[in-house]
Amino acid sequence: LVDRTHDICASGLPLPIQTKVYVGTMGAILFATTATWSLQSAQPQQQPPWAARVARFAEFMRPLTTSLAQVPQIPGFSNEAYAAPEVMDRVVRILTILQGMVAAVKTENNQVKAALYDTIQEVLPLTLSLFRIYTQHTKVLRAILEFFLAVFESLWSQAGPSFAQQTISTFLEVLQGDTIARVLRQEDASGTAVVNNLVLILILLVQGKGAAAEALLPAIVAFVMDQLFPHILNNFSSEITSNFYQLLTQSLLSHWKLFDVNGLLGGRTPALLAAYERSFQQPDVSIFGANLEALQELNTKLNLFQRQTFVQTGFSFSLLRTVINVLLAKTHNLLRDEILGLIYHVAAFNFDSLEGQCCSPCCRDPRGPVRA
Questions:
Q1: pLDDT at position 34, please?
Q2: For residue range 156-195, what is the model confidence (pLDDT) as tens digits?
Q3: What pLDDT, on a 0 to 100 scale, did the predictor assign at position 279?
């Protein structure tokens, strides 16, 4: 069965079924029980030594990875051949299968993960180079990002920080300006999925405490605020939006020293906080509620509402005026208690000043709520 897997899957099986077959075969080789190895014999057999299983798995994977490695060698690939439907289908098929296999080892031990990583390591730089080539073909970009997301989720320790830096730098460099705009304009969901998967990768990265995350953070913040946020404002209901705010929250929680007033990214912090306020001016209740919780979490863990960046820039006044207007307008009554909780915690540290500059005008102006 192992020997026939490639032929079986090449016979026209749907891609999801092919992926399951490859994942099942990988399991039979790398983490199967003794019974699996006994199928050809009526008598129970002992599992082969681990080295033999790893060698067998490498042999099994070779046709798959070789097929991907040979793609750039197709005649005329750098000109127009790369866009041929059969070439793109080949790339998407292999990366989808590899993505399924990588995702399948997420909860396995490091021994299994290392065995898989060793077989795909050589195609990682190649796949990254394909990302530059297929910027106008979101179907391929989506397969590439889904594959790399699986690698970051399952094989982070095996890939290492240098891999992360090279990969993220390439993604951020390519998805700039007109490119990200073109990707997000796709009529189907593939363009949104491309950017959403990138944001999920960035969330994984910024949660790390190592030098790789800190080195990339300025580029990540520049990308999400200068390139991505304007598109979110134009389509706030996009599925990217919730992950965008999760990325902001995790960046602040994991690397506050860089965002503090004297930190490397201190100049960016007011814009990040203002992005939260913009979400409170939108009708999306789920995003509104999630960001109320995010600010409360930032305050609990970082004392955000007492920070100089929060108070002395006037952001606390602006935020309170915005959420009080929402409260008075009764557009988000489902979140009334959460809004009141945020107002209390923001105002508690400087109530006299805030009462005079924010709360009183909202209550006393005969024309109604003061617009932020």
A1: 39
A2: 999 988 999 999 999 999 998 899 999 988 878 888 999 9
A3: 94
Give the tokens for residue 313: 């820039």
Q: Is the dihedral of CA 233, 235, 236, 241 positive or negative?
A: negative
Q: Kindly state the average pLDDT of the residues 74-89.
A: 93
pLDDT digits over 258-293, tens only?
Answer: 999 899 999 999 999 999 999 999 889 999 999 999
Task: List the alpha helices (DSSP H) in 207-268.
Answer: 211-222, 229-234, 240-254, 256-259
Maximum pairwise Cα distance, the chain: 90
SS (H, E, C) 63-103: HHHHHHHCHHHCCCCCCCHHHCHHHHHHHHHHHHHHHHHHH
Question: Alpha carbon of 317 to those of 112, 155, 343: distances in Å?
Answer: 54, 45, 10
pLDDT tens-place string over residues 204-230? 999 987 787 889 999 999 999 999 999
Convert the pLDDT of each residue in 5-39 to its tens digit: 888 888 888 999 999 999 999 999 998 653 344 44
Distance CA 1, CA 25 (A): 8
Q: What is the reported pLDDT for 47?
A: 62
Distance CA 135, CA 131 (A): 7
- Angstrom distance (rounded) from CA 195 to CA 199: 6
Rounded to the nearest 5 degrees, what angle is found at the Cα of 124, between the Cα atoms of 211 and 151?
Answer: 65
Could you give the CA distance from residue 358 to residue 81 in angstroms, rounded to a whole number?
Answer: 62
Q: Are 247 and 206 in contact (CB under 8 A)?
A: yes
Identify the DSSP state of 45. -
Q: Which residues contact 327 (CB under 8 A, 6 or more apart)?
A: 336, 339, 340, 343
Q: Which of 23, 103, 17, 33 is nearest to 61 (CA)?
A: 23
Instruction: For the chain, give the number of residues.
Output: 372
- The tokens for 140 are 């391929």
Q: Give CA separation, 120 vs 10, 156, 327, 343, in Å.
A: 20, 13, 54, 52
Nearest by Cα to 27 from 17, 14, 36 = 36
